[in-house]
Write a structure and sequence with these properties.
By secondary structure, the chain is mainly alpha-helical. It has one domain (2-170): Four Helix Bundle (Hemerythrin (Met), subunit A), CATH 1.20.120. The protein has five helices and no strands.
């Protein structure tokens, strides 16, 4: 129980820190000369690809667990967490070297902004959900893991899929 309290605090601190860093990178000022110092033009495609891989891994992980292939499920979900972490690093690098968000110039502006805002909100929510789900699975808190995973999976899938949709609408 005491260990749970410690890790709960760590998960919340990490989640808040990640959300604040991402918000700052998108909305905050940049040091002089940083924008364009590194060519990051390929990273949106890389990020969409990573999101696609994450989606496939999430679906495969779900398939494995409903077929009671627990060890394979653990490995796939750890890989999925790894791809999401890789996405986050790539996303942070992209937004550090490219100032501000890309403007949408298409014909479906209302749909785009509905997808974008729901994606942003749920992306912030998925951070602690994914961390709690991982923590509980890692510590064999199976009932608690299963209960939170039922919430985490659809949100994580939505965030991954809408990340790709946003890329397709912007580029």
């Amino acid at each position: 129980m005491k260990n749970d309290i410690f890790w709960t605090r760590i998960i919340y601190v990490v989640s808040i820190a990640i959300s604040l860093v991402v918000a700052f990178l998108i909305l905050g000022p940049r040091p002089q000369g940083i924008e364009g110092a590194l060519d990051v033009s390929i990273l949106p495609l890389v990020n969409a690809t990573i999101n696609s891989i994450t989606t496939i891994l999430l679906l495969y992980g779900y398939y494995l667990i409903i077929n009671r292939k627990i060890d394979a499920h653990k490995n796939v979900m750890l890989t999925c967490f790894g791809t999401s972490t890789l996405f986050l690093v790539s996303y942070v690098v992209y937004h550090w070297f490219k100032s501000g968000p890309k403007k949408y110039g298409g014909e479906f502006e209302t749909i785009y902004y509905i997808i974008l805002f729901s994606h942003i909100i749920l992306a912030a929510i998925i951070i602690p959900l994914a961390l709690f789900t991982l923590y509980r699975g890692w510590n064999n808190q199976i009932k608690r893991h299963r209960n939170i995973a039922k919430i985490t999976l659809p949100i994580w899938l939505y965030v991954s899929v809408t990340g790709v949709i946003i890329y397709l609408m912007l580029y």
